[in-house]
Design a protein that fits this description.
The chain is of the alpha/beta class. It has helices spanning 29-44, 79-82, 91-94, 110-116, 144-152, 154-163, 169-174, 184-201, 204-217, 222-236, 240-250, and strands at residues 5-10, 13-18, 50-55, 59-61, 99-103, 106-108, 120-124, 128-130, 167-168, 180-182. The longest helix has 18 residues, at 184-201.
């Protein structure tokens, strides 16, 4: 099978590159299997501390490649046809490690969904974004109706979903769809530099717990989230990472945090 997802681990940062540049990295079942397989492997690999996702060539992911389904009757397509991995498209949210998107170009449909399920997003100022679904006779797919309002607010999500209009990276930054906007040739270097900063200076254990806290708190009342935070904080005082974090600060040196504990959930 051709590698439609490339993986390169450098100093704790795993770079995953969607690799169908001639098709603007249009999403296929094979790409899903390789991408989610790489994410699953990375989450269990102690040498990986942060994951960066980008696209080869001029696009990030221009949506689903409908031709990849071949001659299948559209009315007969099943969930297994479009999601052969058996994992939800939101899979990246369940990982214990940060996932950073480096959006270098066209991002549409399921490509936008994949970017939204990353934890932090960098984007080119001229990257084109669109939900696309309403202009294809489709609905808000893959849980985007849940995630997009949480990222940009309800009315902006409605605007983007109802109209399927195209917006550029600069506007995406203004409305909070992405977090960091750069010229296109600076997007991946900036995302990798950010990821290296996390890998070198932040506790893998802390990042895993913080990520879980944030996404669970989206569906929680304040008081349970506060009570859990108190319990987690007290437990963290007894951990080696806390001692190393304080000591490295006092000694004015980079911290040396251990790889992620496999028991961390």
């Amino acid at each position: 099978m051709t590698d439609v997802v490339l993986a390169e681990n450098t100093d704790g940062v795993l770079l995953l590159t969607l690799n169908r540049p001639d098709k603007l990295n249009a999403w296929t079942p094979a790409m899903e299997e390789q991408f989610f397989g790489a994410l699953a492997t990375a989450d269990e690999d102690p040498s990986v501390r942060v994951i960066v996702v980008t696209g080869a060539g001029r696009g990030f992911c221009a949506g689903a490649d409908l031709t990849a389904l071949g001659a299948v009757d559209p009315s007969a397509i099943t969930e297994a046809d479009i999601h052969p991995s058996g994992k939800p498209i939101s899979y990246a949210l369940s990982l214990r490690k940060p996932v950073i998107a480096a959006i270098n170009g066209a991002t549409a449909g399921i490509g936008l969904v994949i970017a939204l399920y990353c934890d932090v997003r960098f984007a080119a100022d001229d990257a084109k974004f669109t939900t696309a679904f309403s202009r294809r006779g489709l609905i808000a797919e893959h849980g985007i109706a849940w995630q997009l309002p949480r990222v940009v607010g309800v009315s902006r999500a409605m605007d983007l979903l109802l109209s399927s209009r195209i917006l550029l990276g600069e506007e995406a930054g203004r409305i909070g769809l992405v977090d960091h906007v750069r010229p296109v040739d600076e997007v991946l270097p900036a995302a990798l530099a950010y990821a290296r900063e996390l890998a070198e200076n932040c506790s893998p254990q802390s990042m895993a717990i913080i990520k879980r806290q944030v996404y669970q708190a989206l569906e929680s009342e304040l008081d349970p989230a506060r009570r859990e935070a108190v319990a987690l904080m007290l437990a963290s005082f007894a951990q080696d990472d806390f001692r190393e974090g304080v000591l490295s600060h006092l000694e004015k040196r980079p911290p040396k945090f251990a790889p992620l504990d496999p028991d961390t959930v």
